[in-house]
Amino acid sequence: MAIRSEFSTPQSLKRRLRNFKESLIGLSLFLCALSSVLITFGVIYTLISEALPFFKDVSLKNFILDREWTPLFENPQYGILTLMSGTFLTTAIALTIAIPLGTVAAVFLSEYCSHRAREIFKPLLELLAAVPTVVYGYFALLFITPLLQKIIPSLESFNALSAGLVMGIMIIPYISSLSEDAMRAVPLHLREGSLAMGASKLQTSFNVIVPAAFSGIASAYVLGISRALGETMVVAIAAGLQPRLSLNPLESTQTLTAYIVQVSMGDLPQGSIGYRTIYVAGLVLLILTLTFNLIGQNIRARMENKYK
Amino acid sequence: MVKKAEVVNLNFSYTDKRILNGVSLPIYENRITALIGPSGCGKTTLLRCFNRMHDLYGAIQYDGKINLFPDELNILSDEIDPIEVRMKIGMVFQKPNPFPKSIYENIAYGLRVRGVKKKSFIDEKIEDSLKKASLWNEVSDRLNSSATSLSGGQQQRLCIARALATEPDILLLDEPTSALDPISTAHIEELVTELKKSVTIVMVTHNLHQAARTADYTSFMYLGEMIEFGESSQIFTNPKEQKTENYITGRFG
Amino acid sequence: MSSTSSRQINLKTQIEKLKRQDMFFWFVGLITLAFALLTLLSLIADMAMTGWPRISQSFFFSFPSRFPDKAGIYSAWVGSFCVVLVTSLMAIPLGIASGVYLEEYAKKNIWTKLIELNILNLAGIPSITYGLMALGFFVYRMHLGQSILTAGMTLGLLVLPIIIVTTREAIRTIPSHIREASYSLGATKWQTIHNHILPYSSGGIMTGVVIALSRAIGETAPLITVGALTFIAFLPSSPMDPYTVLPIQMFNWVSRPQEEFHINAAAAGLVLLTMTLFLNGTAIYIRYLFRKKYKW
Fold first, then answer.
1. What are the tens digits of pLDDT across the range C78-107?
2. Is residue C242 in some structural domain?
3. Which neighbouring-strand residues pair with B67?
4. What topology is assigned to A89-242+254-306 in CATH?
5. Contact A135 C254 (CB under 8 A)
6. Are the CB atoms for A206 and C18 separated by under 8 Å?
7. How many domains would you assign to chain B?
8. What digits encode the pLDDT tens for the residues A284-299?
9. CB of B100 within 8 Å of any CB in chain C?
10. B158 touching C (Cβ < 8 Å)
């Protein structure tokens, strides 16, 4: 048997067949990859096209300035700020928990833990992000809230506080993992430079590593924010369904996402005002999160350039 | 002396940066030709032109020829499929790079790519090429164990066997011993000298002693140009060019 | 520190102070980790203690009911299974193909940049917006109805970025000299991918797939908008049938005022939690296995 082959001309059938097969595979893979772009445009197009007719009925002025959100009432009001205040309130509570704890966990894992301990703790911590959000909702409503009510008797049984707290714990791993990656990407010589001058681990961590990894850490925060803004089930279950233009964490409130859930649970004919409003809420949410995502990516890209 | 190949006035650019400049040299059949020169002189780039490895990365331009004899066919021509070039010209890399598969599958792979299916033929080829690479005695009883469990020197000989199994016209060696310990290096050098009976070898090396010991011909390259080509004995004892002399006497590089 | 004390003593106290601070932070870090992990533990324990009494064979094989002690998760877990099956069929091939394209084929140009930016953003979009998109597009425009097919595809879109990103990361760990070895033997691009790149990255890819499926099983919000029903007292017989899934069933029970239903919710949550923790554990194990298998 001969394994020696002769050179073929570009016109030869064998070679054309092979090239055809190779480019066909390449093309199909490209189309698969392109599908993700189509999905994005699908999301944006659907949201915009279903939301826009809403503004035929409601003026932008009312949308921004109304102080209540009661689209399904007889005297409907469409103040989006009402829902946004709920979203911002729960997000703020979540970040108050997640940013300090996530950062400390990241510094601890990156600078204080042995390789072995990190290999154990990091996946464990990441399990926090694996728990289904509906389970967190249950936990917030039926475990955390009763617990908090013992300390704060005036706490309503649906409230922004426990939803926000639980959400905060949920996003700790988002913040700690990305921040830790950023800190570990700081070149070893910076760390050694500081330690060689007699600095302690703590000084090195916060005076050298954290500033050097700052853009990575900041982008982790930003992604954490966008995660909290979009979180749905925890707030839908535990924060209540009462749209309120207020920043009182002890009362019930309603976020953009919880509103979408509430309306979706009912009958929802296409084109009805209820149908339009969930797209409007969704669009506002999408704009908010996309803005934060883009900021986060921008910060991250800058970091990557820094250490190239 | 029969020419197996010749490089004729070869210019090579990558992303519009000229890396090889008017390189010409003959490659003689069943001889070892060493390419030497300081880092960045283009010797590895030249070697990788022989099997069109550069084509994998795009943004490249060949200008000039590498003719393969007896047909005097220019393997750099657009008409030629790089895959067919690689089917005729084998390569062994700097770092041993066996596939994380069994020893058997590593060597069979080149044959499978060529459409060989007959098991008895593959078995025969594997034994044959492992013997040529003087690895048979060490691994004949564990052909199904993972190639990555071998030592570095064994892995490199496996890579040589892998290339030999496909009966290449020319075998390219890119600093084949730079990642190995002295004993494995000696082993490989011995092997290479033995191999030239059956295959033409072009070898890039950083180690001047290695070139002097093993190569029949040596070409010295500097800044992308071929400075001098000749029999190794002449290059190392009586170089014609000042730059060659400076290099082999250790004045730079 | 008085100016009269010698420099050496100063240094000594300073070092001691630094050491104390270091110890202190070490404690803070440990407490932080402990706090996070204890929260997870108490969540699991609470779920287990409340829900365990309800776990029985009949719980798994009963349909939902008005009577809490008769209600079960039969239609829910079967529905979850069917939906995730559709999700897998869609997202796994599409995700792996996209990942392979981006790593092995894509040239550095504007299209690639666009696709990459896109995947990053897709991964960051709240899950409920996928649900809104699916409602407008799958349900109303393509007339797929509030079906298993719609739900599976919605979750498929949602987890697609996870699979793409992990596929890319897995491929990226394969050193280029392995590719070159294959090409140097005369292999074509597809042969190289099929015989080497995919097998060697399969561990990482599988990890990503398992994580994606675990995410899909636990996802609730987007399925609410595409109309997962909560009262389904039959098993689906085709992909176009209405359905419910485990998290939706749990959500329904949590939202009821009667406490007996909360016990059902905890039991459903326990099942859900067990499944997702099991899948995540599997993912970690696969990653560990393959990391041992392929050391570059």
1. 999 999 999 999 999 999 999 999 999 988
2. yes
3. B6, B74
4. MetI-like fold (1.10.3720)
5. no
6. no
7. 1
8. 999 999 998 888 888 8
9. yes
10. no
